[in-house]
C-alpha cells in the first residue's frame, strides 16, 4: 500500500476502478461502530422506549437518505469531491462554504467516534485487566486511537476501502453476538427513571427523528463524493451507484443505531453516559468482542471522516498537501475528544452539534442537488479546479468566484433553519410558530429551494462543451457552452 498523493484534483479515468459494491462496503464497514451506535442511545436518553426509538430512527434515516443519496451522483460525474464539485453552483470560491461545512461535520463526528470508542476501550481494559480508569489512561487510549486513525486516513482511499471490506463482515458478527449478550435484560419500555426530554411524546419523538435519525445521512452530505469520484460513469450506471448508496446508508446507519437502542434499554442507559453502563453490564465472554468493536470499529469510522477532513482542508488551503492537512485535522479532533470527555455534557453537546449543522448543511445540499439537476450532471473538470490551482476564470467564475444568488439562498435558508432549531443549549424564536416542534431542516430546505429558484432559475447555468465520453454517459447530443 502506498500513501495516496491525490487531493481534491480531478481523478483520471484510469484510476476510477471502484464500483457500487465498493461504495456499499465503505458505508457498511465504516458505520457498524460505536460512533454510530451511540446515536441509538440518544432516543433512550430522551425518554423514548423501543417502539418510539425505532420509528423515529427509521423515519429520520429514510428522509435523510432520500435527500442525501443523490449527492453520490455529483462526484460520479465531476470526478472530484463534493465540496469542490459544488463550485459549479456556488462559484469556485463560493464552494469554500461546502468545504467548511464538510470540515465541521467530519471534525465533530470524528471526535465523537474517538471519544465513545475510547471510553469503551478504557472500560473493557479496566474490567479485563484491572487497568486504572483515571485521566492518564483515558489520555493514552485517546492518543493511540487518534494516531492509528490518522495513519489509516493518511494512506488514503485504497487503504480505507480494504479496511471497510474487513470491518463490514467482522463488525456484523460482533453486533449479532452483542444481541445475544444483552438480550436477557432487554425491555421495550423506556429506561427506568427517564422522562420525555421535551415534556411530551410527539416533540421528543421528532427531536429523536432529527438529531438521531436524520443526522446520520446528513453527516455524509460532503462525504459521499470522496468514494464515488473513484467510480467510472462509463462502466457503471448511475442507477446502480444511487441504489448502492441508498442501501449502504440505510443498512449501515439503521442497524448500528438500533443496536444502540437495544443495548441502551437493556442496560437502562438513560443518563448522560452510554459507554459506562454498556461496559458495566457486558457479560464477561463479550468483553473482548466489545473491545474489538470499540477499537477497530472506531478506527474505521473515524478514519473515513478524517480522510474527508483532510480533503476539505486541502480544498480550503491549496498550498497544503492532503497528508499535511490530514495530520492537522487529526490533532484538532483529538483536542475535541479531550473536551468531550473532560469538559462537556455529552448528550447536550451531541444533540446541539448535529441539529445546528443539519440546519446549516441542508441548504447547501439542496442547492447542490438543484444545480446538479439544472446542468443535467454535466461539469467542466478544468473549471472546477481553478481555485485549487490558484488561478482565475473558467465557466464557474461568476462574480469574482462567487455565485451570489446561490450564496444568498444558502444564507437565507441557514438563517431560517437556525431560528427554527430546538437544542438543549439554544431554542430559536420560530419555535413558537411550529408548536415547539423542531422542523428546522424542512423549513431550511423549503426556504433555500424557493430563494434559489426565484433568484437563479431564469439565468442560464454554465454548461461545458460536451465531449464524446460525456455523450456516451448521458446519451445526449453535444451542448453549447453558455
UniProtKB/TrEMBL annotation:
Keywords attached to this entry: Membrane, Transmembrane, Transmembrane helix, Transport
InterPro entries membership: Pur-cyt_permease, Pur-cyt_permease_Fcy2/21/22
Bilayer disposition of the protein: Multi-pass membrane protein
Alphabetical list of Gene3D superfamilies matching this protein: Hydantoin permease
Membrane spanning residue stretches: 23-44, 50-76, 96-116, 136-157, 166-185, 205-228, 240-265, 285-307, 327-346, 352-375, 395-421, 433-455
Domain of life: Bacteria
Coiled coil region boundaries: none
One Gene Ontology MF term: transmembrane transporter activity
One Pfam family linked to the record: Transp_cyt_pur
Compartments reported by the entry: Membrane
Principal location: membrane
Gene Ontology CC entries for this record: plasma membrane
Keyword Ribosomal protein: no
Family: Belongs to the purine-cytosine permease (2.A.39) family.
Name recorded for this polypeptide: Transmembrane transport protein
Upper lineage: Bacteria, Bacillati, Actinomycetota, Actinomycetes, Kitasatosporales
Amino acid at each position: 500500500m502506498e500513501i495516496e498523493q491525490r487531493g481534491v484534483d480531478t481523478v483520471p479515468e484510469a484510476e476510477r476502478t471502484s464500483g457500487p459494491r465498493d461504495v456499499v462496503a465503505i458505508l457498511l464497514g465504516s458505520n457498524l461502530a460505536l460512533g454510530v451506535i451511540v446515536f441509538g442511545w440518544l432516543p433512550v436518553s430522551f425518554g423514548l422506549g423501543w417502539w418510539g426509538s425505532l420509528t423515529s430512527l427509521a423515519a429520520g434515516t429514510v428522509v435523510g437518505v432520500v435527500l442525501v443519496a443523490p449527492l453520490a451522483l455529483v462526484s460520479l460525474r465531476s470526478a472530484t469531491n463534493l465540496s469542490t464539485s459544488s463550485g459549479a453552483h456556488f462559484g469556485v470560491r463560493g464552494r469554500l462554504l461546502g468545504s467548511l461545512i464538510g470540515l465541521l461535520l467530519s471534525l465533530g463526528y470524528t471526535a465523537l467516534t474517538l471519544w465513545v470508542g475510547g471510553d469503551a476501550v478504557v472500560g473493557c481494559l479496566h474490567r479485563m485487566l484491572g487497568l486504572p480508569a483515571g485521566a492518564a489512561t483515558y489520555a493514552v487510549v485517546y492518543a493511540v486511537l487518534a494516531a492509528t486513525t490518522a495513519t489509516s486516513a493518511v494512506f488514503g482511499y485504497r487503504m480505507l476501502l480494504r479496511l471497510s471490506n474487513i470491518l463490514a463482515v467482522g463488525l456484523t458478527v460482533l453486533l449479532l453476538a452483542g444481541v445475544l449478550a444483552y438480550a436477557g435484560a432487554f425491555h421495550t419500555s423506556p429506561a427506568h427513571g427517564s422522562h420525555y426530554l421535551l415534556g411530551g411524546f410527539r416533540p421528543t419523538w421528532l427531536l429523536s427523528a432529527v438529531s438521531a435519525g436524520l443526522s446520520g445521512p446528513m453527516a455524509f452530505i460532503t462525504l459521499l463524493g470522496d468514494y464515488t469520484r473513484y467510480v467510472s460513469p462509463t462502466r457503471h450506471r448511475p442507477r446502480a451507484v444511487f441504489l448502492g448508496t441508498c442501501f449502504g446508508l440505510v443498512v449501515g446507519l439503521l442497524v448500528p443505531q438500533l443496536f444502540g437502542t437495544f443495548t441502551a434499554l437493556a442496560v437502562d442507559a438513560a443518563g448522560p453516559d452510554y459507554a459506562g453502563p454498556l461496559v458495566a453490564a457486558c457479560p464477561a465472554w463479550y468483553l473482548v468482542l466489545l473491545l474489538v468493536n470499540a477499537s477497530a470499529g472506531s478506527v474505521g469510522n473515524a478514519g473515513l471522516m478524517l480522510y474527508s477532513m483532510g480533503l476539505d482542508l486541502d480544498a480550503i488551503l491549496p498550498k497544503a498537501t492532503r497528508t499535511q492537512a490530514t495530520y492537522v485535522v487529526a490533532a484538532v479532533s483529538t483536542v475535541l475528544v479531550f473536551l468531550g470527555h473532560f469538559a462537556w455534557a455529552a448528550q447536550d453537546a451531541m444533540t446541539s452539534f448535529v441539529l445546528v449543522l443539519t440546519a446549516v448543511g441542508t441548504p447547501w445540499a439542496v442547492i447542490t442537488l438543484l444545480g446538479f439537476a439544472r446542468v443535467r450532471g454535466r461539469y467542466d473538470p478544468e473549471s472546477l479546479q481553478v481555485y485549487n490551482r490558484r488561478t482565475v476564470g473558467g465557466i464557474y467564475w461568476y462574480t469574482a468566484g462567487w455565485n451570489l444568488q446561490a450564496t444568498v439562498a444558502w444564507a437565507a435558508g441557514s438563517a431560517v433553519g437556525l431560528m427554527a432549531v430546538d437544542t438543549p443549549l439554544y431554542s430559536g424564536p420560530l419555535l413558537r410558530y411550529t408548536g415547539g416542534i423542531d422542523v428546522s431542516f424542512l423549513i431550511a430546505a423549503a426556504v433555500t429551494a424557493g430563494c434559489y429558484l426565484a433568484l437563479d432559475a431564469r439565468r442560464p447555468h454554465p454548461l461545458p462543451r460536451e465531449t464524446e465520453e460525456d455523450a456516451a454517459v448521458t446519451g445526449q447530443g453535444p451542448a453549447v457552452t453558455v
